[in-house]
Write a structure and sequence with these properties.
alpha/beta; 10 strands
Length: 342
């Protein structure tokens, strides 16, 4: 199984963004050592007291310099806020700095209203919100030099590696994003930690709409990843304790309460006890937003989940509050699925 990580650089209570970034660096270095395939960083805005991952392009550059082999990328760049050309320029430059190691995950989302307004400030001709497919395609055409000869952008050149191109993914949590990825012939990652019960339909949509890409993306067949929130510990019971932080954070988000991630003890108190261990088998329409288990339990669950939707890779989000426990969780999961350490 190809296993990867997506990180949000969580800011602990009483901590700082500087410390959060250092924990992200340490996690990326651990992921490389353990044999993970990719390390992605998310994009969130207006949540500085809880999430420091606001600018994936900055973190990708730093993480690529702090590692040597693992692929580094965005999970995701929120394309609704940006110019496709600027995103393509940025990630082509990153790929030139770390040739053959850069992933560009493209998605869209809205967040804190004030932050969304600030991101649009000074942009008088902002595109409509329903042009995401066009923006994804335009970004890919800039990266792969795939504009028709008579297109106004055909003559634009961007600094790039002479031999490689950022691996461009479409990320999403709905069949709509899956359709975009399929029609462009790009790899697709589905965020099951956002809408887990839609995963099967989205992946089927991706395969149904897949067309061999006109871009030099190296795909003749569909290629997909399933992104899950997973906590791993020595036993199913201990893993359920760690999962409590994710469960409590989601409940807080539902009622509009944002802030640093709760410690395990705070989460268990808010939840009224330790969550039940995740069952060792789950039907797709029963998937929760977060799963947990021992290395053997999670290896079995991830095999079942990828088989159910036909995914080729797994991307793990881990919201365990303590950085040492977070790394240990990824270590145990790597052992469970049999990753080969570098």
């Amino acid at each position: 199984m190809k296993l990867s990580i997506v990180d949000i650089a969580p800011v602990r209570s009483g901590s700082t963004a500087t410390e959060a970034y250092q924990h992200t660096v340490e996690l990326a270095q651990a992921a490389e050592r353990l044999g993970y395939s990719r390390f992605w960083v998310a994009e969130h805005h207006g949540l500085a007291d809880s999430i420091a991952s606001t600018t994936p392009e900055v973190l990708v550059s730093h993480l690529a310099a702090k590692t040597s082999e693992i692929r580094i990328g965005s999970g995701t760049v929120l394309l609704n806020h940006y110019s496709p050309f600027k995103v393509a320029e940025t990630f082509a430059s990153l790929d030139a700095l770390a040739p053959g190691r850069i992933d560009l995950g493209l998605g869209r989302a809205t967040g804190m209203p004030a932050a969304d307004r600030a991101l649009r400030s000074g942009v008088p001709h902002q595109r409509s919100g329903d042009d995401h497919a066009e923006k994804v395609e335009e970004t890919a055409r800039h990266l792969y030099g795939a504009f028709p000869d008579d297109h106004p952008y055909d003559d634009i050149e961007i600094p790039r590696s002479p031999d490689t191109v950022p691996e461009t993914w479409v990320l999403g949590s709905s069949p709509a994003s899956a359709e975009i990825a399929g029609e462009l012939g790009l790899p697709y990652a589905f965020a099951a930690f956002i809408r887990p019960t839609v995963a099967e339909a989205a992946m089927e949509t991706y395969r149904d709409h897949f067309e061999t890409s006109e871009f030099d993306a190296g795909l003749d067949d569909p290629h997909s990843a399933l992104a899950v929130n997973a906590a791993c510990a020595e036993t199913d019971r201990e893993a359920a304790r760690l999962r409590a932080s994710s469960e409590a954070a989601y409940r807080r988000m539902q009622r509009g309460a944002f802030g640093p991630p709760p410690t395990v003890e705070e989460a268990i108190d808010e939840l009224g006890g330790v969550p039940d261990p995740t069952p060792e088998s789950l039907a797709p329409d029963e998937w929760p937003r977060a799963i947990s288990g021992s290395p053997d339990t999670l290896a079995t669950l991830l095999d079942e989940m990828t088989d159910a939707v036909g995914a080729d890779e797994v991307v793990v989000q881990n919201l365990v509050e303590d950085p040492d426990d977070r790394i240990r969780s990824h270590e145990l999961l790597a052992e469970g699925v049999g990753l080969t350490p570098r």
